[in-house]
Fold this protein.
Amino acid sequence: MLTQRGRYALKALIYLAQTEGSERPRQIGAIAAEEQIPRKFLEAILVDLKRARLVESVRGQAGGYRLARPAEEIMFGDIIRATDGPLALVPCVSKLFYRRCDDCVDEATCAIRHVMAGVRDTVSGILDQTSLADAIRVGAGERAPHAGDGADGADAADAKDAAETLA
């Protein structure tokens, strides 16, 4: 499940992406007020996002935060990993944060591991192909990004059905 921290990070970066054309960085207070995010919590989130090189800060009276790269290049998966850690539901299938499960007898034959690897692949396939720019377009009523052209041939409806079955 997406944490509140991850949700606020997504909201803040979508806000920054929507104002991307402006050269002026956005102040924390403005982002917090517009997106209804507690200011202190947003400050901590932005530090993590800066460390992950997703945003950059500008000092001074006219300072604030802006995207470090164009919105088309910042993916949901990158944002969630920066704030919440691995996308995988169990550590033994994480590609970036792998750790053997404490109670696992044999990873090669573990049914849970095999199912969770499929879940990870589906979730990361969607999140790693969905940019901030895609989210803005969807929010404006355009077709969902990558619907019907999934990397593995599955379409968004199949992914949604699979997610609902597992929920």
Q: What stands out?
A: The radius of gyration is 18 Å.
